[in-house]
Amino acid sequence: MLCALKHQPTDYLPCSFMSFTALRRQCHEDMFELVKAERALGLDSFLFIPSAPRPERPTHPDLRGLPARFDPSVETKEWREEIAGTPGILHKEYSTPAGTLQAAVRLAEDWPHGDHIPFVDDYQVSHGLKPLITEAQELEALRYLLTLPGEADVARFAEEARRARAFAEEQGVLLAGGWGLGGDMAGWLCGLSNYTLLALDQPEFLTELLDVIHAWNLERMKVVLSAPVDLYIRRAWYEGCDFLMPKFFREVMLPRLKTEAALAHEHGALFGYICSSGTVPMLNFYLDAGVDVLIGIDPIQGTHTDMSLMKKQAGDRLALWGGVSGAVTVEMGSQEEVRAAVARAIEALGPRGFILSPVDNITVDAPLTWYNIDAFIDEWRSRREIPSRD
Predict the structure, then answer these.
(1) Virtual CA dihedral for 257, 125, 77, 72, nearest 10 degrees?
(2) Domain ranges of the chain
(3) What is the pLDDT of residues 167-185, one digit of tens each?
């Protein structure tokens, strides 16, 4: 894995599922057991820390990594507004020394959190009526919700990191850590539509918000990088050109990305960037920032995903991870379609500087999925050898 990420010679082209929820559930959310199960399938697994599973992250279920803590002075209140003929509206209020922040969501049958609104969450965006952050005057209050990691969390992570490093060395697998945040956090806080419009209509406000997030993120990065980890990963699903214009990315996102990549490199870690759509117009920015690997190459659901062009532009400076749609091809396709997709990915993105994976995740635990996973792995094994002339 490390050799592939560094464009160094490898024994074979690696295959590592960037996320494998269907198998993780069978392992009772135990990341150590997940690594062993993936290795039993013949995959090149990696261990991610902090490893707290989703049920242990009620405040931020879609944000993996260190806990998001509020200042002790913050008080929260939640209530349901009953509306005849509908499931109603759920409200949440955060009282801080710098003012009050409010959020509201429209309840529906698929709302998974009961009478609770998490601090940040994908469902909150899709059901949102009032996002938490809408104007610059709210940023001082937001700082009370973005506190630095406390001593107890740092100590807990240090113990987990010690065990994880020993396990990774014993198993011979890569140790990754994260997640870093920028635009994804802004999208959660503002709502994705508002986030995109703010970049166009109020770039100064969005830039100030991203500054607040960036300062918070750097401190969290330092804790995770202290493990140490081999690869630090930033989640950036909402930073492609589907959401942001290249001009805004160059002027606002790129300088912060450079700082984060440099911090990872100072700690001896590679820097990974997860974005599965809208990446081709941004590739030169990733190269300029010092990103080591772009994670999430999806040829079906990802816009602007010309794999051959991406490989040519990435050259030997940016590794690529992905190549096959998990949701469309692996979970819903035929075995023939899976095999063809694996072959196309390896031909377009391999052999050096490439890790094969379904993108983003395998979540459906059903017979068709497992038949297709078997076909995926079998086809990879038949094509993973790297010619000696390479």
Answers:
(1) -10
(2) 2-68+123-383
(3) 999 999 999 999 999 999 9
